[in-house]
Amino acid sequence: MTEEQRRQLQQQLWNIANTLRGKMNADEFRDYILGFIFYKYLSEKIERFADSVLEEDDLKFAALKENTNDGAEYIQAVHDAAVGELGYFLKPSEMFHAIALKGNNQLDTNNEGDGYNFILPDLTKILKNIEQSTLGTDSADDFSNLFEDLDLTSSKLGSNEKAKNALVAKILIHLDKIDFNLSDATADVLGDAYEYLIGEFASGAGKKAGEFYTPQPVSTLLAKLVTSQNKNLKTLYDPTCGSGSLLLRVKREANKVDKIYGQELNRTTYNLARMNMILHDVHYAEFDIRQEDTLEHPQHRDLRFDAIVANPPFSAKWSASSLFMSDDRFSSYGKLAPTSKADMAFVQHMIYQLADDGHMAVVLPHGVLFRGAAEGHIRKHIIEQMNYLDAVIGLPANIFYGTSIPTCVLVFKKCRKNPEDILFIDASKHFDKVKTQNILRPDHIQKIVDAYLARTNEGKYSHVATIGEIKSNDYNLNIPRYVDTFEPEEPVDLSAVSEQLKVLDGEIQQTDAVIAGFCGELGITPPFVVTGK
Q: Which of 317-321's residues contact partners 24+ apart within 8 Å by CB, and which partners?
């Protein structure tokens, strides 16, 4: 598939998504359109797999008759193979194409709700059957309640059942015409399109976007940082994984990732993350995404990870319960992050989960670099006692959806090659402005990664600060203390300015004289004192 065809597919899907735009807000119609795309993907995946199983018998899965003995026998054989290999099963009558054809009774009607066979009960049952086909299997947790946000009874789809059915049928019919090109195993065309849609929804979701999506350039930067010295990862983890896009970006950047782990608080976003994994052809046995509060109830606390990436919710609230003072993640620091700002608590949690030879990169608000009290105490402990902080990278403002605040990336390693210093990079002025958003381009990202690997002083961009230098600043990590970006102003030519003022004064007197003449002709007093020539 060419780049142009790829863009056309993305635009087609976005146009179909906009069928729902007038009826609900961005995060609501996101759940419907992504859910339907995922259902179509599962159908096409099972059909390709089943056809390969039936190839020796010269049969096609979609043509099997479910009400015959032979058909039922073949379907059961496919079921047994599919649940083990793919983790789920769909019958021929439950395939996306079959239900779209059933709904497509008459396309040229102009009366909303008329001309479409009623498919909502069938569709509801099919989505439930997909989940139930995994019960008692290794994939059950990954498919459990996966379609719970696709509510086909919602009044947002229409004022009555007929209108709801018409809208859903319309969307399925349009999606059914699109070829997802699953036969090309080398091109993740649908995965790219899915990521594109998630990004588009994020751009329209305002502040809520940060709950489920990290802008792709930022994801790429974090992915390149944690894979810069090891591209073969056994384990990868994101404690606030959102839609899973950041994890998938690291997987793409690495040569190999054996298993992906993540945790997400928001139920809807958790479902989206699991869909995103499966749709990117990550086998159900190769990811473990859990839904819970990471700080309060960590789900993977006994594991240690080769690479950790995260974009935690900025300055989120947490309980900071005194009970955490006996929690191994926090106890050695002597203080807890404040209840109103959990940023450092997330850092502490991730440091605890990081393997001894692991690499970690996290995006945080700039305040973590210089805020005092408990946060300052924790920061000092990480640098002075642990010596895990490897680099501080300042990013441009306004690169995240829903907030314009400047952010930074903190890079951590437990076994550092340069334990005597910390690298500071100021990349805040390196971006392109696109409409109202600032964008990191590939060359901006690569410059940061190159500077991180080179670890040298570069005027107005990077500085290698000794631990002693940081100590002398009382462990304040504010980047301008270490990277001097001061630009001297152009010297002012006072003689030239004086001559300009003389010229302007002469022009003002000429204008006043003209106005005074007009006033004299009109027999009125000028609005200023007329001076002599």
A: 317/342, 318/342, 318/345, 319/295, 320/345
Q: Give the end of a domain, one of 203, 228, 243.
A: 203
Q: 3-class secondary structure for 11-30?
A: HHHHHHHCCCHHHCCHHHHH
For residue 105, how many other CB atoms are within 10 A of its CB? 14
Alpha-carbon dihedral angle through residues 205, 208, 210, 211, given to the nearest 10 degrees: -120
Q: Kindly state whether residues 496 and 440 are assigned to the same domain.
A: no
CATH of the domain at 303: 3.40.50.150
Going by C-beta distance under 8 Å and a sequence separation of 6 or more, which residues neighbour residue 466?
420, 421
- Same domain, yes or no, for 425 and 500? no
What does the pLDDT look like over 134-163, one tens digit per residue? 999 999 999 999 999 899 998 888 889 998
Residue 458 makes CB contacts below 8 A (sequence gap 6+) with 451
Tell me the pTM: 0.86
Please list the residues that pair with 307 across neighbouring strands: 236, 359
Considering the domain architecture, whether residues 494 and 465 belong to the same structural domain is answered as no
Residue pair 396/428 in contact (Cβ under 8 Å)? The answer is: yes
Query: What is the tally of structural domains in the chain?
Result: 3
Residue position matching structure tokens 């896009």: 245
Whether residues 366 and 476 share a domain: the answer is yes
Distances from the Cα of 158 to the Cα of 20, 107, 167, 175, 425, angstroms: 10, 18, 8, 20, 52
CA distance 437 to 404: 9
| One-letter amino acid for residue 289 of the chain | I
Please say which residue of 461, 481, 501 terminates a domain.
Answer: 481
DSSP state of 366: G
Sign of the dihedral through C-alpha 22, 36, 110, 119: negative
Q: How many residues does the chain have?
A: 533
Rounded Cα–Cα distance for residues 4 and 12 (Å): 12
Q: Which residue range(s) make up the domain with 501?
A: 489-533
What are 233-268's pLDDT values in tens digits? 999 999 999 989 999 999 999 999 999 999 999 998
